[in-house]
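Researcher: I'd like a structural prediction for the single chain below. Treat it as a standalone chain; there are no partners to consider.
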Amino acid sequence: MNNIILTELGKNTEVTGVASGTKVRNGVNTGEPCIVVYVPKKKPLAELTVKERIPARIDGKLVDIQEAVFKALSLLPSPVRPKAVWEDGGSRLVSYRPAVGGISVGHYAITAGTLGVAAYAPAGRVMLSNNHVLANCNDCAVGDNIYQPGPYDGGTVADKLGELLDWIPVVPEGGGATNQVDAAIALPTLPTELDLSIADLTDMVLYSKAATVGMEVTKSGRTTQVTSEHVAAVDGAIRVQYPTFIAAFVNQIMINSSHFLSGGDSGSACLEVSGVEEPTTIVGLCFAGSMFQAIVCPIAPALSGLHLTLSVLVDLHGVVKRNGTPVSGVSILVFNYSTFELIEYIEADSNGAFGIHDTLYQYETAIIFAQYTIGSTEYGGFKRIHCNQSDNYAVVNLSEYTPVPDGLFCRFKLNPGDFLNCDIVTERYLSNLF
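Model: Treating it as a single chain, here is the predicted structure.
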């Protein structure tokens, strides 16, 4: 409905947005429901033609006129050029590997925005942010370099984090064209260089949902770091200024705040606040704002349009056997095959059974190593398993001589229980696994 009002009013006025809200009178929110119509600057009625005047009521609902010009946030100027100095929790303007959400990132041709969150595409773990952060407002090609930090913060080709993989085009207004999201994804050069966490906010994002009016939300961004506010509207229809065009957006999440977002926060993941626990539910991507409003695009169209799924914790269980018989007292090491992240070190029970709970990520592959010694003979085995919600059971067979996968592992003779990480030819190796 609001997009229809925006279109009709925009024929004769400079209206920049329409949303459901409450009446503000003399700077005080009266709580009275109304339709909020945003304009660049209020003018006396005497200066307006009859066609330019906005009616006091639309479809019987009270109209409140407020000032706002919405811009994609990377276009909002910073008061001073930021410096890479240490702050509590770490500077968000320097290079991090693995990279986390909430820090500076950008397409090689832009200034800088924010890495939103890690998600999963058919190609693997990817970084999700805005189109105007990773895809340069549609002026891009698959494979374009993505720097972390972004170019404005000193990022160069030496800081390449990955390459542009896909984006949802932002369509300029005209002919009734509207948008719902400003979103794009990039594939890290190495899966090990992209972490699931968001700086100073959460270890991982597991769920998504639609925002609701009054919901408390939070975000972690390059410029303003962690901020929280309440959702004012979820049906915003606005016109956003990009470098070379204006685009109309509908069904936008609107937050009435001057501090929630600032230039460079574009791409930040907007999460629902969950009390004393870490937030794990995403509702949208921050992407635009005005002097007194922050705009967040809904997450559902971004996930579906880019074929993304979020992290899901899953269980893994199984049994270790030698010559078909379960073995007790077996040492087991489990790690993430993509990132070489150590997940668990446990021992099987007297029936050879083992299990780990809520420590693996769906859509990732795990490697399970088992080791057992009889006298002076070591028996080892391993199993590769793709983690999902329906089949996470593995049988690991021990044999006296376990083949070593070519190019993946090196072996060192260490004392029992010792593990050694080493880097050889820039690849990560784990040893003493058999």
